[in-house]
Write a structure and sequence with these properties.
The chain is of the alpha/beta class. 28% of the residues lie in helices and 22% in strands.
Length: 257
């Protein structure tokens, strides 16, 4: 992220270059690195970095509080998450990203007798849209939502857009940095007053953030502005890895002081 040479990072950590490479690859090392000096060099929060190195993992979130939410993980070269939500009364559904394979998505739609109305894309990287063709073929009237500048105007998100699935309400917030078209979708008005759900794509992960392909600084700034400004109990649903919450990431994510 900071273009710090491996040799300099290893020196700061009190490790040899092979030891640093081993640490990055496996998370294991035979001696204690100097996390404070390493974090200072590469711009991370030292205490949070050390907490993660000691095995921090976000507290498991029981998705039972959101009965009409499914996390669907598919794997090709690596695992990617997409998410299906629906209104309990109308059975109208919305899909957030597609993952690699449409088959498990279709299975959930059939099992829950849903009408898939909307496809929301967090960003147009291959792993998040690989199954889009199959989904649009099966549901030709599905409405696509994206921040991509190359999409037809009727498919582009606008700042004050909101979409209703009967009672559920879906809004969007720009979160570029990892991708120019990065966007986070906020799902609210859940039954039983369940907290907001933020579909963040690769804007933020548990204890990390997506690679700053566009800009690391923009990526972090937009997370602060448009994700960390959500209520602490907001469920964060990332494109990779475990679910987390705004409170967990504020307290433990080393990319944020």
């Amino acid at each position: 992220m900071t273009n710090v040479p491996v040799a300099a990072a290893a020196t700061a950590a009190g490790l040899s270059e092979p030891e640093l490479v081993q640490l990055e690859a496996s998370g294991k090392i035979s001696k204690q690195p100097n996390f404070s000096a390493l974090a200072k060099l590469i711009g991370l929060n030292a205490a949070k970095l050390e907490t993660i190195a000691k095995g921090w993992y976000p507290a498991e979130v029981n998705l039972g509080g959101w009965v009409e939410l499914r996390k669907i993980t598919t794997t090709k070269d690596y695992a990617v998450n997409c998410y299906l939500v629906w209104d309990e009364i109308s059975r109208e559904g919305a899909l957030f990203d597609t993952g690699w394979d449409a088959a498990p998505i279709f299975q959930h739609i059939e099992e829950n007798e849903l009408q898939l109305k909307h496809l929301f894309i967090t960003h147009m990287h291959e792993d998040h849209i690989a199954a889009m063709g199959a989904i649009r073929e099966k549901f030709p009237k599905i409405h696509l939502h994206t921040n991509s500048k190359t999409a037809p105007p009727q498919n582009r998100n606008r700042a004050n857009d909101f979409v209703h699935l009967n009672n559920l309400r879906i809004t969007n917030r720009e979160t570029p940095g990892h991708a120019e078209d990065g966007v986070t979708y906020i799902v609210g008005n859940w039954p039983e007053d369940a907290p907001f759900v933020a579909m963040v794509g690769d804007a933020i992960f548990a204890g990390s953030i997506g690679r700053g392909n566009q800009s690391w600084e923009v990526a972090k700034e937009k997370v602060r502005e448009n994700i960390f400004s959500l209520p602490a109990e907001t469920l964060i649903c990332p494109g990779h890895g475990p679910n987390t919450t705004v409170a967990e990431e504020k307290a433990n994510n080393p990319f944020f002081g």
